[in-house]
Amino acid sequence: MTLEERFQTLSRHRQAHAERVAAVMRALAQQHHLDEELAWFGGWAHDLAREMSRPALLAEAETLGIVIGPEEQAEPLLLHGPIAAKWVERAGRGTPQVLEAIRYHTTGAANLGPLAQALFIADGVEPGRRYALREALYLQALEDLNGGYCAVLKNTQAYLLSRGLAPHPDMVRALDQCTAGTVQDTH
Q: What residue stretches are annotated with the HD/PDEase domain (predicted)?
């Protein structure tokens, strides 16, 4: 199945979300001098596996050779980013930066490059999201990508904790980097 065919299997709601994320990615890319086409593509492709069932996500991750940690075993939805990244890679359509961005768009991670930071931000602040800080976080990210990334990470952590959910270890490491003030463009 091509990536475009996979996109067409998504609900209209999910397609619209991906299109909004792609648009935010393009805006962040323009502001921070990133490749606009790669940014748009990462936003468009990031949720290709998001509507798979939990059992299907586990099975597909196993088929693709993706390591399934205890967090992913407990919440297989965390696998949708790594699965989509593998699909993009196998389709020959992604640079290392795009693959990193798609892979970590749900959890964030320490030492992410600017395209991956941008996708984590864009997924959280696209205009279809409805929460009080959304616009402020978007404006902060336009001014300062690293600062915006850390702010969206902190906001996501607060949201997870408010729901009684623990942040993924990759997110914890990224937050530690933010607290230490060592987040920087690494690519």
A: 10-137
